[in-house]
Amino acid sequence: MRRIAEFVKERRKETGLTQEEFAERVGVALTVVRKIEQGKTNLNMDKVNLVLSMFGHELAAVSVKELNTPES
Asked: Which residue from 3, 7, 36, 63 lies 20 to 30 Å from 47 (Cα-Cα)?
């Protein structure tokens, strides 16, 4: 979560938005943005993806099998 926290915080600051302005623009509660930027681990994946979608990214579940399969 630390990498996601840093990513979101850096990108939000690049846009020149406060946490409150960013949360409003994304359509999530201010506490969601704060928790993401603090690196909290007990977050709703849908909310995290709403935030990440503002930057063209999303999280997806990955199985252990996918992680251990070499790319061609």
From this structure: 63
27-56: pLDDT as tens digits? 999 999 999 999 998 899 999 999 999 999
Inter-axis angle of helices 45-53 and 30-37, nearest 10: 90
- What is the count of structural domains for the chain? 1
pTM for this predicted structure: 0.77
Q: Indicate the Cα dihedral angle 53, 57, 59, 65, nearest 10°.
A: 150
In a domain, 70, yes or no: no
The reply to whether 15 falls in a domain is yes
d(CA 45, CA 72): 29
